[in-house]
Amino acid sequence: MKDLRKLFQLILPYKKYALGNVLFNFLGTIFSVVSIALLMPFLDILFDKTKEVTTRPEFHASVSTIIEYFKYYLTIIKQEQGAQTTILYVGLFILIAVIFKNFFVYGALFIITPLRQFIIRDYRNKFYSKLLRLPISYFNNERKGDLISRFTNDITQVEWSVLMALESIFKEPITVIVFLVALFIASTKLTLIVFLVLPLAGIFIAGIGKILRRESRIRQGLLGTIITQLEETIGGMRIIKAFNNEDAMRQRMVDNNSNLTRISIKTSRLGDASSPLSEVFGILAVVILLWFGGRMVLNNQMEASAFLIYLGLFSQVISPAKAISNASNLIKRGSASLDRIEEILSAEEIITNKQNPIILKSFERSIEFKNVNFKYRDEYVLRNINLVIEKGKTVALVGPSGSGKSTLADLIPRFYDVIEGEVLVDGINVKDYEMHSLRHVMGIVTQESLLFNDTIRNNIAFGMPEKTEAEIIQAAKVANAAEFIEQADFGYDTNIGERGSKLSGGQRQRLSIARAVLKNPAILILDEATSALDTTSERLVQQALDNLMHHRTSVVIAHRLSTIQNADLIVVLGEGEIKQKGTHASLLQEHGIYKELYLMQE
User: Fold this and answer.
1) Is residue 149 a contact partner of residue 223, using CB atoms and an 8 Å limit?
2) Which residues partner with 424 through β-bridges?
3) Measuring CA to CA, which of 105, 379, 467, 483 is 20 to 30 A from 268?
4) Is the pTM higher than 0.85?
């Protein structure tokens, strides 16, 4: 029942398609019943058992009246044109009924197709939008491959399991209900006997569905693990080969794949079992009907033609009943995927705008850290941080790896929120600002150049579609990138490949700087922007950075102390605390961490 509620919640925004499908299925089923019911006069004529109705019956809104009218007109045709012509007319009526039936069946499928596709479209859009809203801390705790698996495989599973079951959910119950009504009209006694058999099938199939849901969730989790390993293998192929670890990685994949195969076989076998089970119970019901119905015919309690039509109607109930049982298992299987998708959609968005946030129009005075403490999980990575960064000044953050430099910088654009204390921009807590306006005044260049599989132009103008060609070219010149761009095959329209794979490290970094130049931010955050470059590339990138930092408020994280000797203030971090502050010259006069780092690099 819970799974059905979920399903109908998905359908609710597109209820007009669902209602149209129900209407067409109902009409299709009515004509299906009519086409079978018309066989009865055919059999009566064939076996000369026709009960002639020579007097026009009085009209009442009932099935029996309609049947009497039909027999009345059939009697007239038989008397005037003979039995053979009457059979021809009955055959034409059956053909027309079948044509209408199939028209409405196709119409039902035609209407439900957009419903399926719209729901999947909405899920993809919701999922991706949710990923964009989630904080960076969320992605630190999740496997990338598992997220990709949920976006691709789980949503596909929802489409092929849950949404394919929609056709059965809307069509088959209507078919069963309409045919059951017809069966009650034909013989109440025989239909009540059927109701004693069918619930047994439901009990067995419900048990299978419960196991299917559990096993399907395990299967989708294993699939996420395999995709994670594949993504790590492609990204880390150099390391795998360099350390001769191919065999271990291969064995790890074999083990995961074997587990996935075992679970897949189990779920497939369970799913396949529902169809033969429902068929066995269906045939059991037919055997019971043959016994009771045959006795009724032999005892003249029922016409033979009526009993044959009853069996024909009942045979039409077996197939949709099986489809309903299969749909139930499909929903159970897809529901596990739906749960995994909902886990992402319901994940807490811990970094959000407050009500009526302040719009930061421009940066005027300073950035201040006031009694800041921060931790990712249990242990604090920043403790009692007090620091003021004045407008127009360059402040460098240095210290050993793991000292909290990047974390400190990430608190300014609210990639993370402080646990205790405040981060203030122009005297106002960053949590009080509207996030887009806060980040609009900031530009960030990281150690790893984050580029996209697109053209050079679109990477430079990323998030700034309003920028002109002249502004893009000028930004490239300031970033020392114009020369290699102009030498590229298609200039600014050259595609740079995934993560900029067609460019060198220095070229990628200069494109990142060009992007920051084009944004023209008031506050610049440079996170070890030159640490991964060779000497020549570093020189070109450093020149570009000097151009970018001119007359800006800059927060620079650096391992190479030679790049920040001219900073207005150098802040030395150690074990999450500020150990020293000062200029390059003043810190060298002290016997502390900065001097030790400087002497090691010298």
Assistant:
1) yes
2) 368, 429
3) 105
4) no
